[in-house]
Amino acid sequence: xxxxxxxxxxxxxxxxxxxxxxxxxxxxxxxxxxxxxxxxxxxxxxxxxxxxxxxxxxxxxxxxxxxxxxxxxxxxxxxxxxxxxxxxxxxxxxxxxxxxxxxxxxxxxxxxxxxxxxxxxxxxxxxxxxxxxxxxxxxxxxxxxxxxxxxxxxxxxxxxxxxxxxxxxxxxxxxxxxxxxxxxxxxxxxxxxxxxxxxxxxxxxxxxxxxxxxxxxxxxxxxxxxxxxxxxxxxxxxxxxxxxxxxxxxxxxxxxxxxxxxxxxxxxxxxxxxxxxxxxxxxxxxxxxxxxxxxxxxxxxxxxxxxxxxxxxxxxxxxxxxxxxxxxxxxxxxxxxxxxxxxxxxxxxxxxxxxxxxxxxxxxxxxxxxxxxxxxxxxxxxxxx
Length: 385
Hints:
Strand content: 5-15%
Radius of gyration: 25 Å
CATH architecture of the largest domain: 2-Layer Sandwich
CATH superfamily of the largest domain: Ribonuclease H-like superfamily/Ribonuclease H
């Protein structure tokens, strides 16, 4: 099991990999104690069954630079294959503002090919490679050195089996003509906006039942301070204060240290120093927010008149269509979107792109009374009206 610890070694491997149609990629990282993931290991493998074509890259080695890897990522003649790539891509985007191109995600491809929703790597190894993966090193500290042989074996398995999985899914997509479906899904993964959290937008991630604009203004400022503090110091946002404490603070509206001390859910570190000062300043800014700048809750669906019978019919149609197409129903449309369609909404993902081909067109025809559904044995049949 070769471990690359120098830039020259990495450059030599990437130069050889550039002569192949694809390379499989995975990472190991830590994020429990930081805002941004700490990259601890990169696994790479070229096509073939020979494990000598697979290597571990140690980004923690003294003096190593990942520039040769990023050059390979930019080489559009080589497909970069990941499984569940989102967190891996975030690491590379934050580090070098680079996305692998072209990209292939076997989790996305597997969903399109009928393996279910968010199918795990071990499941694909078992079903496609007819093998098993040793999971004993999954929850390990990848920042510690030296790595054990068990850790190295586990890490390499994430890219060696991935070669066979990729070739199987690639061929299946070509046979079914669904490669474009996967490409549409991957556009989200390669959009920088997917990985950028602007502090002023962080409040939208906090779940609260209170919809008062003034409350939301304070919530917005508190969430923005937390996000900026966490980003600049590279600490998890929950180490600053958790969501339940944030909501409590927005309700209490503390104006001084004494009132701040009454917060039951705030960690000890939040009651003093920079965090305490930031909280008090955020609350003050939220209270002083002008009426025209107050955030407004999303009420776009509040007044929708959902036809429950039509919504139920859409669920039946979705089940029939996804079983026929061999894709996971939740990949096409969640229940909330079906209710939205039944209430007249048309700006939902299920009515766009490849989802429209599989389900959306007939969903609209069902809403317009152009088709009906009937049962024949265990099958649901679409009938022209």
